[in-house]
Amino acid sequence: MDCEQRLEVQRHIANFGAINQGLAEIRPSGNPISASEIALLQSYVSRAQRGETFTPKEAAEFTRLSEIAANEHPKEDWTRDLLKLSMIVGGLYLLAQIFKKS
């Protein structure tokens, strides 16, 4: 991925601003999402919005936590954006692996 493509992805990701507000409003229920998991999810969102890379474990954990938050708040629009963002992160990781092998 060249620099211009990376900037375009970052611009797209920055449009998911409602995620930050939604995450700030959710409260830990203990089951299935804890306060520490909410904090971790918030850090993943911030990292994704800054265009940072993720390890395979982090990308998988980001997706898992996003799914939990979306299941707890299925009627909230921001959860759809959260799921999209986690899929973008996972997709970018996979693309990086493909290009690394070529």
Mind explaining what this structure looks like?
This protein is an all-alpha fold. The protein has 5 helices and no strands. Helix 2 packs antiparallel against helix 3 and helix 2 packs across helix 5. The model has no long low-confidence stretch (mean pLDDT 81).
Write the layout of secondary structure elements.
Blueprint: H1 3-14, H2 18-25, H3 35-50, H4 56-72, H5 77-101
Helix pairs in contact: 2-3, 2-5, 3-4, 4-5
SS summary, helix count: 5
Strand element count: 0
Quick one: biggest sheet? none
- Low-pLDDT stretches are none
Task: Report the portion of residues in β strands.
Answer: under 5%
The number of domains is 1
pLDDT average, as an integer?
81
Order of helices and strands: HHHHH
Q: Helical content, roughly?
A: over 70%
Distance between the termini: 13 Å
Structural class: mainly alpha
Overall shape: it is globular
Cα-based radius of gyration, to the nearest Å: 14 Å
